[in-house]
Fold this sequence. Notes:
CATH superfamily: Outer membrane protein
Strand order of the largest sheet: 1-2-3-4-5-6-8-9-10-11-12-13
Number of strands: 13
Number of helices: 4
Order of helices and strands: HEEHEEEHEEEEEHEEE
Shape: globular
Number of domains: 1
Distance between the termini: 43 Å
CATH architecture: Beta Barrel
CATH topology: Lipocalin
Helix content: 10-25%
Structural class: mainly beta
Amino acid sequence: MTRRALALLLLALAAGPIQAGELEPPKIGTFSFVLENDLFYGVDQHYTNGVGFIWVPDRRTPTPAWAVRLARLVPWFPEEGPVRHGYAFGQSMFTPSDIKLSDPPLSERPYAGWLYGLVGVGAATGGQLDLFTLSLGMVGPASLAEQSQKFVHEVIGANEPQAWGTQLGNEPGFVATYQRSWRGLAEASMGGVRLDLTPHLGAALGNVFTYANAGLTLRFGKHLPEDYGPPRIQPGLLGSGEFAPTSGFNWYLFAGIEGRAVARNIFLDGNSFRDSRSVDRRPLVGDLQYGFVIDWHDARFGYTHVLRTQEFRSQGSGDDFGAVSVSVKF
């Protein structure tokens, strides 16, 4: 009897997780956290920090009527196929090359912050992704970038920035962004490993950013998921805030390039309707990025190293910064 009872108990314990898995409720969406910072490479200047929180509802969640109407109003947006939607909230900050100076030279990039909320709609038709986003927020002291940087620097024991009093003034900001990507436009396999090439075209319009962009991304891995790379913070290769869960461990490497023809960057050009610090912006900017993505069931981790060319004429050299993203399905 003891052996029989023990055997029944072991069978019940073994069956329990399976039954729980069968009854597990469907996921409601994907939450992503993105951190971009130049501290990964021992510097503290220019685009020095960006933080983003992204929520993309599960594709089985009904799309709100406003999202469908917005998508249908966007030129070139696919008229057929399901419309997806998502939300983001973030903060970016910019500083001169020496934050210890109380009065940085006028040739240095001005202090600036950007606090924003974002809504986006997208449509994936086959291997094509169309993505439209609208960002609204505040530039200037209302962005709380000064308080954020000073708090973080105090916690980690870094130098305290001395000249946030010279930052750009308060200004409401908006950016409308459209991008089309073609996943796996070119594909190849060798030795059990796959490669694919995804080009993209897009543009942004607003008083914060106005530019046209184009680029491509190469992925390399044994199993390439149906995604567009890890999420990033604008401007840059946007990636995607959603991913397909895997049954176990999966990975891939990626590398990408993007060029932007820039007509407006408030963080270089200064405030739109008031005097502020500014620098002589370069009209052409390029990014080179490379990194890796790791998937484990309903979680994903990505790391990206970004090399950005000079963005203004008095800039001594290009910039390096790292981007970490963590995505979890709930």
